[in-house]
């Protein structure tokens, strides 16, 4: 039923807690996992005048997906790693449209005015994805 599972990760604690659920789904369906890290270039702190440059964030992303990739290979699960740059929501949904049968991602528990004004990446993905999205509630 599911051959290609997208596991978007930012290396956060939420991603780490979601990882076993992605592994479980991959095992249940004998599926391949796509570990996707999106370098978020939409914030003012990124880029020419920002405190972090895109190359640094890309390096961090590569280290994060490499860690998950090693763990998946240790679990004998086929994995594809990908680094993208841009708006995380846009990149996740575009990648899913191309390759995924399912998305497995964590929630962050954003609340109050921040959630009202910004929404969350997970919430936007759930509302717009064309494939099933398994969300894992994780602590704030």
Automatic annotation (TrEMBL):
CDD domains, sorted: USP-like (cd00293)
Top-level taxon of the source organism: Archaea
Transmembrane segments: none
Positions of the UspA domain: 1-137
Family statement: Belongs to the universal stress protein A family.
Protein name, entry field: Universal stress protein
Any single Pfam family the record assigns to this protein: Usp
Source organism phylogeny: Archaea, Methanobacteriati, Methanobacteriota, Stenosarchaea group, Halobacteria
Organism name: Halorubrum trueperi
SUPFAM superfamilies registered for this protein in UniProt: Adenine nucleotide alpha hydrolases-like
